[in-house]
Amino acid sequence: MKTDMPKAEEYSLMESLESKNGRLGLGDSRVVLMTEQAYAFLLQVINEHAPQAIKYAFYDMGYRVGQELMGTLKDRADDPERAFKYFVETFRQAGYGDITVTSFDLSKPEARLRGTNLFESGLAKQSGIYRSPRTVDHYSRGMFAGFMSVLLGREVVCEEMACEFRGDGACEFIILPFST
User: Fold this and answer.
1) What domains, with CATH codes, occur in the chain?
2) In this structure, which of 20, 38, 50, 76 has its CB flanked by the most CB atoms within 10 Å?
């Protein structure tokens, strides 16, 4: 089931931001803007010093950010599905890419997302660190998993099943419970 996003008049990330005394904030968190080129440089530097860390470090960083975002958005919705919709809308409005929820089923629990123009896929070629087609949206999938883990009160994992960088029509993600 495709879920409806919050209407633009219901929620604006820009209205939630506050700039005061040289600090841009979202709730209690400081927001720092980074250009695409700066992010590409970050990828290049990490690749030069610890290439094996990119996939795991960016997933973990995204996971932690997703957890933090859940904290800032938890009061915006009275149910988990609505909270997840606000998270997806925040992701979009923050410029990470155009993402839609294609399914959301708490009984499994499972969520599926489809995205185009995700910043990581767009920057993968620019950074020049990848020599072969692959899934590259590690930070984004970490964000999805972190947010959903807090939302459900249990650890989940997010896998990228398709990626624009490797030539797929869109990036596709599935979020499932973590099992040992």
Assistant:
1) 13-177 (3.30.1380.20)
2) 76
